[in-house]
Amino acid sequence: MTDQQLARCRILVVEDEYLLADELAIELSELGATVLGPAPNVLTALRLLNDGGALNGAVLDTNLGGEPAFPVADRLIAKGVPIIFTTGYDAEAMSERFRNVPRCEKPFSIARMTAAMVKAFKPEPTLP
Predict the structure, then answer these.
(1) I need a surface site. Which of 12, 18, 36, 49 has the fewest CB within 10 A?
(2) How many domains, in total, are found in the chain?
(3) Phi then psi dihedrals of residue 55, to 5 deg
(4) Domain around 73
C-alpha cells in the first residue's frame, strides 16, 4: 500500500487532543481517505463503531482524557481491524496484550503517521 492507496481507505481516528485530531483528519482527507471521527473519547468511538461500516484501520490515542482507549482497541482487534496507537508512553508502559501493536510516540509528524498507516492498514476493509 502507498500514500495514494490511503485514498481508498476508511480510517477511524480516536484522539482527544483537538489540534492533533484535526490535523490528522485533514491530512487523511487530503490524501483521499474517508475519516470516521475524530472521536475524543471511548464512548464516542464505540458509538461510531456501532454505526457500522467497513474500516481499513484505526488510529487510537492510548489515553483519552485519563481514560484508556483499550476497550476500543479490543473491539477493533477482535474484528480484525488493524490499529496504530499514538502515545506519549514507551512500550514498557503498554499493557502486555498491546505490546505488538504498532505505535507512533508523540510528538510525531503526520508524514511518519501516514507511513505507519500505509504499512499497517489493510487494503481491503474489515467490518467493525
Answers:
(1) 18
(2) 1
(3) -125, 145
(4) 3-120
